[in-house]
């Protein structure tokens, strides 16, 4: 719970829950804060108000899994956010100790080549692009040597032109990065990236301070590539089991579409990675 990230997450989470949504009558008149009061969260979770206050203030540092689970339910947190809550409470401290986290297994590199008509790449914990197939490499070529997706979305001058849903991607990426920060609290790459962008990007800082979390999931993305124009892809995301924190993303076009033709052209012009 370094820097009381747990307390900040709890405060942000209870601010999003309307009292009426959890059975408290009386509306919001007379309230000095948005959402639930500390005492109301304590009642819903079945803990004392003093205990919950100490937990939120960072003075209680050893909550049980049962208590954290009850608080997660009281705050109506979705699955991803509950997992994040457990990590912030230190209830899975050994998850982030794999020192080889940025190494891509040779078999996974071979798998990338098994998608000749799709954009496939591997992301690390801080969303560095660790490996690509030729199509993905060509698709990301407008960003030059930059290979961190968070920096691309918040600092690269081409990001707005290439991604039509630029702001949506910004939000989902920051939420997923914060989820990884909870999963891997000792990861230096995540810490350095957050510190850097927190200083240089007001947009990143504002999204980070919402304490929202979410996984990278199936998504529809539209690229506007400078060579071939608009490309529409449906992305699937797969966790790499033997390298916690790595994910494989595979973007496929609709069969017979112009997007498929565009990827075919990129494949024909792409050299080896």
Tell me the strand percentage band: 5-15%
Structural class estimated from helices and strands: alpha+beta
**CATH class wording of the largest domain:** Alpha Beta
CATH topology call of the largest domain:
Beta-Lactamase
Query: Alpha-carbon distance between the termini?
Result: 41 Å
What are the secondary-structure elements, in order, as H or E? HHHHHHEEHHHHHHEEEH
The pLDDT mean sits at: 86
Kindly provide the radius of gyration, computed on alpha-carbon positions and rounded to a whole number of angstroms.
21 Å
Explained architecture:
- β1 (119-123) and β2 form a beta hairpin.
- The chain has 273 residues and is of the alpha+beta class.
- It has a five-stranded antiparallel sheet with strand order 2-1-5-4-3.
- The longest helix is centred in the middle third of the chain and has 18 residues, at 166-183.
- It folds into two domains: 2-88, 434 Repressor (Amino-terminal Domain), CATH 1.10.260; 106-269, Beta-Lactamase.
- The model is unreliable at 93-101 (pLDDT under 50).
- It is built from 13 helices and five strands.
- 34% of the residues are buried.
- The chain starts with a helix and ends with a helix.
């Amino acid at each position: 719970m370094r820097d009381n990230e747990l307390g900040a997450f709890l405060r942000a989470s209870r601010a999003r829950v309307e009292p009426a949504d959890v059975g408290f009558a009386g509306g919001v008149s007379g309230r000095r804060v948005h959402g639930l009061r500390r005492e109301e969260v304590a009642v819903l979770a079945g803990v004392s108000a003093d205990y919950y206050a100490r937990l939120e203030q960072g003075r209680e540092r050893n909550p049980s899994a049962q208590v954290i689970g009850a608080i997660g339910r009281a705050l109506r947190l979705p699955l991803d956010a509950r997992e994040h809550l457990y990590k912030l409470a230190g209830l899975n401290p050994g998850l982030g100790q794999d020192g080889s986290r940025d190494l891509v297994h040779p078999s996974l590199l071979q798998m990338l080549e098994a998608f000749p008509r799709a954009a496939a790449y591997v992301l690390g914990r801080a969303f560095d692009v660790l490996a690509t197939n030729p199509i993905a490499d060509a698709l990301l070529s407008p960003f030059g040597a930059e290979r961190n997706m968070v920096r691309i979305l918040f600092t690269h001058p081409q990001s707005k032109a290439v991604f039509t849903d630029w702001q949506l991607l910004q939000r989902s990426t920051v939420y997923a990065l914060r989820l990884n920060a909870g999963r891997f609290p000792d990861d230096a790459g995540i810490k350095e990236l957050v510190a850097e962008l927190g200083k240089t990007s007001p947009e990143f800082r504002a999204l980070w301070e919402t304490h929202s979390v979410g996984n990278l999931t199936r998504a529809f993305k539209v690229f506007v590539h400078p060579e071939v124009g608009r490309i529409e892809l449906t992305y699937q995301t797969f966790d790499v089991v033997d390298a916690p924190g790595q994910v494989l993303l595979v973007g496929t076009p609709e069969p017979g579409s112009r997007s498929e033709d565009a990827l075919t052209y990129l494949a024909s012009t792409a050299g080896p990675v």
